[in-house]
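Here is the promised in-class demo. Please do not try to memorize the tokens; focus on the logic of going from shape to residues.
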């Protein structure tokens, strides 16, 4: 049986909650949305029902964005996203259209953000962290490697727990 690759990709994207019209050209501007993890998922999920301007003018905190996503699924017929896709969309909305101060260089609010901010950017850009998508075990291995091979100060057990929880929630794979 021969499978149409274009049809298969649309089926997979719909299943992930990331449907994108096939006619979208690579490099399209996404109506001015800033680049970042979750941009495409936010764009296609939100514009399936309304203009992107309805999203960009909101300015809500994480809890409110979370409630809006729940309400869109429960009351407005939005297709539920897979948990990892929903987390990406939520992080994107909070980072770019949240009410929290922007001094955290794109790190979403959450327990452990301050530890990640100061620990990670001491040696490299936070963009390096934000693009990883590692499991909790892989984050732990990476931190051990950084301590043993790169000269990072070893975090205290409580701080390590905060780092690992934050990294796996916001920049992990589910």
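The designed amino acids, position by position:
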């Amino acid at each position: 049986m021969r499978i149409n690759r274009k049809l298969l990709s649309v089926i997979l994207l719909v299943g992930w909650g990331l449907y994108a019209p096939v006619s979208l050209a690579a490099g399209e501007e996404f109506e001015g949305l800033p680049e970042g993890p979750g941009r495409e998922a936010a764009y296609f999920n939100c514009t399936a029902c309304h203009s992107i301007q309805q999203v960009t003018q909101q300015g809500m905190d994480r809890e409110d964005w979370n409630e809006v996503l729940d309400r869109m699924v429960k009351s407005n017929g939005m297709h539920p996203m897979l948990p990892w896709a929903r987390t990406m969309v939520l992080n994107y909305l909070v980072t770019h259209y949240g009410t929290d101060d922007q001094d955290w260089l794109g790190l979403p609010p959450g327990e452990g953000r301050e530890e990640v901010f100061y620990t990670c950017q001491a040696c490299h850009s936070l963009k390096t962290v934000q693009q990883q998508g590692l499991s909790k075990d892989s984050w732990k291995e990476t931190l051990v490697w950084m301590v043993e091979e790169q000269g990072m100060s070893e975090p205290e057990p409580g701080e390590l727990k905060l780092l690992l929880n934050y990294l796996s929630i916001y920049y992990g794979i589910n």
